[in-house]
Design a protein that fits this description.
Oligomer: single chain
Shape: elongated
Strand content: 5-15%
Structural class: alpha+beta
Helix content: 40-55%
Number of helices: 6
Largest sheet: 5 strands, mixed
Number of strands: 10
């Protein structure tokens, strides 16, 4: 049984089944076990399965759909450079220089118009690709919300389509980067033209009309420099937002993959939840899971009481949904929280039985670690240890908040 959420300042989690509270759990032999490999071997029904936390009055819940994150807004500025004033050639040496600088500015502005067109096209394509992706993801989540079979091939096909649409968004970001690199080169050219116009003031043989035309050219070049700087800034903002969004959605899509495998909706990736602003904690428990009032208060060290206890006393434990609810509730409340995962082997029977239980519970813990990382929780936020406990009758994986 698992617990998640918060009530009256106390953390509450979703639970599976009706299991006994295991409090005062000690780290009897907290030897770190190395990175776990392999899946737990099929064991008797009494030794493979499910999760527990404090026994309390259960509350029936109904599925709630976790909203997907909307794509970040792109800039909307249309970068049209100012026109260049065409004036007659004075015929002096300085007048010839003014004509040359004016022609270079016209060429630069034509290039800026092309960059602007490329930017607007890239923005439109990014918007279209994001709409396709979110449409596909919404269809997947809707089907998961109403319930479906584990590993539904239709959802699997839709997931692959969503993955391809995310790759299209990645290509869109690459296009924006290419435009930004081109505009950076244009910025250097604009700065050169501005300095060249100013340096022309110092040339001998100029008449008053030459300096008047130079002043106009300098103003127009300076406005072009400002326009290019704004274009670069908006491109930089678009690229950084889209890059962060793409990384977030890739993690969410990995969590959706886990949800499809289990046939039930989870929510956004745990790593993304760790950075959302704190607010009211919802309880997206589903199916037969139930919400309970926990014994863990937010911000309190929990070395003596687990947040989650998964009891492997039957085969094919379906703990992913309540586990997700419990961890996400903690991260909503304490975004920087870390977790201790303790594999507790039942130290009963002969030495051979104890050794076998110790091996199996580490395999169980490996499955839990993989489930958490698939949900988006960074492995760096997990600390693993193992112990034998003669007071438990079945293997357990306990998770503590730290």
């Amino acid at each position: 049984m698992l617990h998640g959420g918060w009530r009256n300042g106390a953390l509450k989690t979703s639970v599976l089944g009706s299991l006994v509270l295991l409090s005062g759990c000690s780290f009897a032999s907290n030897g770190m076990f190395p990175s776990l490999t392999g899946r737990s071997a099929t064991a008797p029904a009494q030794q493979q399965a499910a999760a527990a936390t404090p026994a309390a009055q259960t509350v029936a819940t109904t599925p709630q759909l976790s909203p997907t994150s909307a794509p970040p807004a792109l800039g909307t500025t249309n970068f049209a450079p100012p026109s260049v004033t065409q004036l007659p050639n004075t015929g002096t040496f300085v007048g010839q220089k003014v004509v040359e600088h004016r022609g270079e500015l016209v060429t630069l502005q034509s290039t800026i118009i092309q960059r602007n067109q490329a930017l607007q096209q890239a923005r439109q394509k990014t918007t279209d690709d994001a709409e396709k992706y979110h449409g596909t993801l919404a269809a997947i989540n809707t089907r998961l919300q109403i319930g479906t079979t584990p590993g539904n091939p239709v959802l699997t096909s839709q997931w692959r389509a969503a993955q391809q649409q995310l790759e299209a968004l990645s290509a869109d970001i690459a296009t924006l980067n290419s435009v930004a690199n081109d505009v950076a080169s244009d910025s250097a050219m604009a700065a050169y033209l501005l300095e060249a116009a100013r340096a022309t003031y110092g040339l001998a043989g100029a008449i008053d009309e030459d300096h008047r035309q130079l002043a106009i050219l300098e103003d127009e070049t300076n406005r072009t420099v400002v326009l290019i700087d704004r274009l670069l800034n908006e491109l930089s903002t678009d690229i950084s937002r889209q890059t962060a969004y793409l990384g977030s959605e890739r993690r969410n899509l990995q969590t959706v993959s886990v949800a499809i495998q289990n046939g039930e909706i989870l929510g956004n990736a745990l790593s993304n939840r760790a950075f959302v602003s704190l607010g009211t904690i919802s309880n997206p428990a589903t199916g037969t899971f139930a919400a309970v009032t926990p014994q863990v208060a937010p911000g309190v060290a929990t070395s003596d009481q687990p947040l989650v206890v998964i009891r492997f006393d039957r085969a094919n434990v379906q703990y992913q949904q309540p586990l997700y609810n419990a961890i996400s509730a903690v991260l909503d409340r304490s975004p920087q929280a870390n977790f201790d995962l303790v594999a507790v082997a039942a130290a009963q029977g002969t030495a051979a039985n104890v050794a076998l239980n110790s091996s199996r519970v580490k395999q169980n813990a490996d499955e839990v670690v993989r489930a958490l990382t698939d949900m988006g929780l960074p492995a760096s936020r997990l600390r693993l240890s193992s112990t034998n406990n003669p007071d438990v009758s079945t293997n357990e994986v306990r998770i503590y908040v730290r």
